[in-house]
Amino acid sequence: MATVHPIVEHTDSFVQRDYSPAAKRALERRPALFINNEWVSSSHRATLIVEDPSTGREVGRIVDASDADVDRAVATARGAFDDGRWSNLPPKVRERTINKLADLIEAHAAEFAELEAIDNGKPVGFATMVDIPGAVDHLRYMAGWASKLGGEVMDPLALPRGTVFSYVAREPVGVAAQIIPWNFPLLMATLKISPALAAGCTLILKPAEQTSLTALRLADFVAEAGFPPGVINVITGNGHTAGARLVKHPGVDKVAFTGSTEVGKIISRNATDSLKRVTLELGGKSPVIVLPDVNVEEVAPAAAGGIFFNSGQICVAGSRLFAHRSIFDRMVEGVTAATAFWKPRPSLDPQAHMGPLVSKEQMDRVMGYIEAGKRDGATVVVGGDAPAANGYYVNPTVLVNVKPSMSVVREEIFGPVLVAQRFDTLDEVAKAANDTSYGLAASIWTKDVSSMLRLAAKIKAGTVWGNCQAVIDPALPFGGFKQSGIGREQGREGIEAYTELKTVIIQL
Ligand code: ADP
Ligand code: MG
């Protein structure tokens, strides 16, 4: 049995740093929506609170968009698409404009990283290293596709050659409604908008109500980058109102969503009424499979990083550890020791590796799962509690003695909670790893090439990592099997998801 290492907390270590003048300016802005390259007031006065989850304090307000606001944004995007002001530009102009937006983000990287840390609670160091450069990469990668998308000339099967000219063209799908979650706010925003823009679509982006600051700041640079009015529109507001209206809106051609499987199903149903094109990136319960030959000293900290990075609020979190029986205890001890590195701190602390969860709601949800796990008979090896602080901190938690039927094993917790199980054979672990309604990602740790490849073939997941974890790259398709989603983002498939094929057959 692994040893228990309780984390001792000091409340005074939870003091958030002062915000920079740039961040204060962003927080003090008048709540507004970005439509047609202008900041406009909402048709009603409703606002939503912007909270710093490191302190639990209100730090600003954003618009809670009304139905009329949503309609206005869609009408604007519709007009901008239909008159071709963006899609008819030379590809090199679209490419250059998208790249300019990337340059502007890069030029304001420190401010974006700070806003992300304030809004989401993620450590500013990680926002600086991961979120902001990642956001820039998505734009730059997709910008190139603007000049590379093309069609094909193809001869029909049943007609003599030379009697018809037939070709397949790729056209932008139209107006895209893009709804994103709160875990990587700016990164998700650029991941969504970049393929739409490169393909020639216009769009309405709705960031999550918990974390809209960086999407709003991004909108500040849209006109400066050179986008014509109406191409990129950003509206803030609640999911069940503004989000739902966008999804149902007849002026929208395509819905792209990243978020929970629960909401993904609602969105899919709402979009289906008018047969909109839909891509969904949803939840996961990703297995981390550790074979007996590994160096536990290296793999245990990596497994800890796979679940505790971003406080476990990441769709590909390695939330189910399967360690071979011969190394199970050492793996659990290693992950437990590594939790010291992930001790929660306020997001602007330069030493922070793990911040709070994004909201009280999320904290309560995660604590609820931990309590349910305990009630069901799971053993807490480390963590299992929340430090005494005003922010929404949960200590890194490892549970053992879990059974496949427990909610902590079956459901996506979206928090810093790892469940650890033993296995003996490859067939057994493949079966256990696949015993989930999700199929987003998996990691396999071994130096044995044939075990690696045999397992990789058996795992039902959109991404399988070997001896690494959470590597997500703009050039490589990303998406889920089973209830983890529909379609793929990133890579060629990512941009093709914003196009329609048109077959043209001309008799000569
Ligand atoms: P979480 O439950 O973790 O907050 P969600 O999947 O609910 O994540 O939220 C992701 C995004 O989906 C947010 O931008 C949210 O506003 C939006 N959203 C939530 N419910 C709906 C809905 N019924 N229709 C459209 N968008 C929604
Ligand atoms: Mg929700």
Written description of the protein model:
- It contains 17 helices and 22 strands.
- The chain has helices at 21-27, 67-82, 91-107, 109-120, 124-145, 185-199, 213-219, 222-225, 239-248, 261-272, 296-308, 328-338, 360-375, 407-410, 426-433, 449-458, 491-496, and strands at 33-35, 38-40, 47-52, 57-63, 152-153, 164-172, 175-179, 202-206, 232-234, 254-258, 277-281, 287-290, 320-324, 379-382, 397-400, 417-423, 438-439, 441-445, 463-466, 481-482, 485-486, 499-507.
- The strands form 6 sheets. Strands 14-15-16-13-12-18-19 form a 7-stranded mixed β-sheet, with helices on both faces.
- Helix 2 (67-82) packs parallel to helix 9, helix 5 (124-145) runs parallel beside helix 6 (185-199) and helix 11 packs across helix 12.
- The radius of gyration is 24 Å and the shape is globular.
- The model is unreliable at 1-11 (pLDDT under 50).
- The structure holds adenosine-5'-diphosphate and magnesium ion.
- Adenosine-5'-diphosphate binds at residues 179-181, 206, 208-209, 238-240, 243-244, 247, 259-260, 263, 266-267.
- Magnesium ion binds next to loops.
Largest sheet: 7 strands, mixed
- Give the strand content: 15-25%
The SS-based structural class is alpha/beta
Order of neighbouring strands in the sheet with most strands: 14-15-16-13-12-18-19
**Number of separate strands:** 22
| Bound small molecules, deduplicated | adenosine-5'-diphosphate, magnesium ion
Roughly what is the average pLDDT, rounded to an integer?
Answer: 97
In helices, the fraction of residues equals: 25-40%
Shape label: globular
User: In angstroms, what separates the terminal alpha carbons?
Assistant: 79 Å
Figure out the total of helices: 17
The Rg value, from CA coordinates, equals 24 Å
| Unreliable residue stretches | 1-11
